């Protein structure tokens, strides 16, 4: 792996096609050749900066899509970017920890650009793309550069010690809604009421109690 071998922060690896793409919890990610942007970026954040990497990546995709298309996006906690209730982008973050400190974080982003989800029954009801939402094809390089520019700006703010929590939480469609959360070996039904500074979800249970759940350990149903 490049990151293990000392690849500098900001290294970008781009794929034209994924044959075994995956998202959180090893779910498959369908992406035929030349239709979407698929890339990973190496980050080397401090412990204090690590939780903001997900926020920076999610906001970068949302802002790039808005700037290119004028479309309004929302985020299904913690990092699915959606348009009109359908997923247009997914983000997967894998972190290597050494002596309780992050050695590196790999941010993988898949954004549906010119995909036609109706051609794939597995995702036809839940996915969308920039092409579907705008009715026109998009230049792949231009979309990639727009996301990377936004990501560079946002991560730069993180490096300067700025919190992204407020900006990120405003995008969350999950807040205020009844959700079902599978957390470890437990199942919770409740209302998503807020997120904490680190981006963890605060859930209000039917009995009035609250529980804080961590993104990496949760399956969320809305």
Topology (SSEs and partners):
Layout: E1 12-15, E2 36-43, H1 47-69, E3 74-76, E4 80-83, E5 86-98, E6 101-112, H2 130-134, H3 140-159, H4 165-170, E7 178-183, E8 186-195, E9 201-205, E10 210-213, E11 218-221
Antiparallel strand pairs: 1-2, 2-6, 3-4, 4-5, 5-6, 7-8, 7-11, 8-9, 9-10
Helix pairs in contact: 1-3
Describe the structure.
- With 222 residues, this protein is of the alpha+beta class.
- The chain folds into two domains: 12-170, Bira Bifunctional Protein, Domain 2 (BirA Bifunctional Protein, domain 2, 2-Layer Sandwich); 178-221, SH3 type barrels, CATH 2.30.30.100.
- Helix content is 24%, strand content 33%.
- It is built from four helices and eleven strands; from the N terminus they run ββαββββαααβββββ.
- It has helices at residues 47-69, 130-134, 140-159, 165-170, and strands at residues 12-15, 36-43, 74-76, 80-83, 86-98, 101-112, 178-183, 186-195, 201-205, 210-213, 218-221.
- The chain has a six-stranded antiparallel β-sheet. Strands 10-9-8-7-11 form a five-stranded antiparallel β-sheet, with no helix packed on it.
- A hairpin with a 2-residue loop joins β7 and β8.
- α1 (47-69) packs antiparallel against α3.
Name some characteristics of this structure.
222 residues; alpha+beta; BirA Bifunctional Protein, domain 2; SH3 type barrels; 2 domains; six-stranded antiparallel beta sheet; five-stranded antiparallel beta sheet; 4 helices
């Amino acid at each position: 792996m490049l990151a293990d071998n000392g690849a500098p922060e900001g290294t970008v690896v781009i794929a034209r096609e994924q044959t075994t793409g995956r998202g959180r919890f090893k779910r498959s990610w369908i992406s035929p050749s030349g239709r979407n942007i698929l890339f990973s970026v190496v980050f080397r954040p401090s412990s204090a900066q690590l939780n903001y990497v997900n926020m920076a990546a999610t906001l970068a995709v949302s802002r790039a899509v808005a700037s290119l298309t004028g479309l309004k996006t929302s985020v299904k906690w913690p990092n699915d970017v959606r348009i009109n209730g359908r997923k247009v982008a997914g983000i997967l973050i894998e972190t290597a920890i050494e002596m309780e400190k992050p050695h590196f974080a790999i941010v993988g982003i898949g954004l549906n650009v010119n995909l036609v989800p109706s051609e794939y029954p597995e995702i036809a009801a839940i996915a969308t793309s920039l092409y579907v939402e705008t009715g026109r094809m998009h230049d792949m390089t231009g979309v990639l550069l727009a996301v990377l520019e936004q990501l560079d700006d946002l991560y730069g703010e993180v490096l300067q010690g700025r919190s992204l929590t407020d900006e990120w939480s405003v995008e969350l469609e999950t807040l205020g809604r009844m959700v079902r959360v599978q957390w470890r070996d437990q199942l919770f039904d409740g209302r998503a009421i807020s997120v904490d500074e680190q981006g963890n979800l605060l859930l209000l249970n039917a009995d009035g109690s609250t529980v804080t759940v961590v993104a990496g350990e949760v399956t969320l149903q809305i």
